[in-house]
Amino acid sequence: MDPANKDKIRALLKSIETGDPGPIAVVNEDKYIQHNPQTHEGSEGLATLFERLSKTAPRVNIVRAFEDGDFVFAHTEYDFSRRNIGFEVFRFEDDRAVEHWDNIQARSGPNPSGHSMVDGATEAVDHDRTENNRAVVRAFVEAVLIGGQVERLTEFVDAGSFIEHNPRLTDDLSALRAALKASDTGGRSIDYQRLHRVLAEGNFVLCVSEGSLDGTHSAFYDLFRVDGGKIVEHWDTTEKNAPRHEWKNTNGKF
């Protein structure tokens, strides 16, 4: 039996570390669409690129990987010239990866509650509740993060058992409330403006959103764990969106 697509992506990402060309066959480079604005499209084959990167002694850890139909989404930590945390999203077509998005942030923390950006639960459960959990998280992002209805926060989040992995926030929801509320001048520190994609497997849901952080146009990738119909754990990365004149391909971040 062929390995699951998420296992193929685990092997692909690990080959950055090993230089093994075998797992790269999962990518259909003739159709591959690259959405990382800092990466040239078609300028260097993945086998050549990964072999070159492997000589710099990188470290790659795939912390979590999930599947949602034709999509695989993975939570990763990289140690190249610096330590980064990332989310990788791949779209499959005919059992091969044909499209890729990512969001990378320098690792920092632990946060004031003692959590790192990657620790916590890793395996999806409650697969029969995937669509319910997707709906809960979508409603939370649209109502609270984008809509600014901060008073509804505990309608979606279990305040008594919530675990926060964002290095700037805490398990106590007060810090998140403060960041989401508009200041006296009308601005919000964290300003979600558009939800682009919601991917889910079981009790894990990843949202890809666009907005601004402290006034800087940014991409937000938020991973939520849901239990009993409420959000109980959260990981994320935030990355500044490069201005269009700096893009190395024309596909766009989202």
Model description:
The protein is of the alpha+beta class and 254 residues long. 20% of the residues lie in helices and 35% in strands. It has 5 helices and 10 strands; from the N terminus they run H-E-H-E-E-E-E-H-H-E-H-E-E-E-E. Strand 3 (71-79) and strand 4 (83-93) form a beta hairpin. Helix 1 crosses helix 2 (46-54). The model has no long low-confidence stretch (mean pLDDT 91).
Give the overall shape, derived from the CA principal axes: globular
Give the end-to-end Cα distance, rounded to a whole number of Å.
Answer: 33 Å
Structural class designation = alpha+beta
Number of strands: 10
Domains counted in the coordinates: how many? 2
- Low-confidence runs of at least 5 consecutive residues: none
Q: Fraction of residues in helices?
A: 10-25%
Physical arrangement of strands within the biggest beta sheet:
1-5-4-3-2
* Residue share in β-strands: 35-45%
Number of helices: 5
CATH topology of the largest domain: Nuclear Transport Factor 2, Chain: A
Question: What would CATH call the class of the largest domain?
Answer: Alpha Beta
Mean pLDDT: 91
What does this entry show, briefly?
A hairpin with a 2-residue loop joins strand 7 and strand 8. With 254 residues, the chain is of the alpha+beta class. The protein has 2 domains: 5-107, Nuclear Transport Factor 2, Chain: A (Roll); 127-240, Nuclear Transport Factor 2, Chain: A, CATH 3.10.450.50.
Give the tags.
2 domains, 5-stranded mixed sheet, alpha+beta, 5 helices, Nuclear Transport Factor 2, Chain: A, globular
Q: What's the arrangement of secondary structure elements?
A:
Blueprint: H1 5-18, E1 33-34, H2 46-54, E2 59-68, E3 71-79, E4 83-93, E5 96-106, H3 130-146, H4 153-156, E6 163-164, H5 174-180, E7 190-201, E8 204-213, E9 216-227, E10 230-240
Parallel strand pairs: 1-5, 6-10
Antiparallel strand pairs: 2-3, 3-4, 4-5, 7-8, 8-9, 9-10
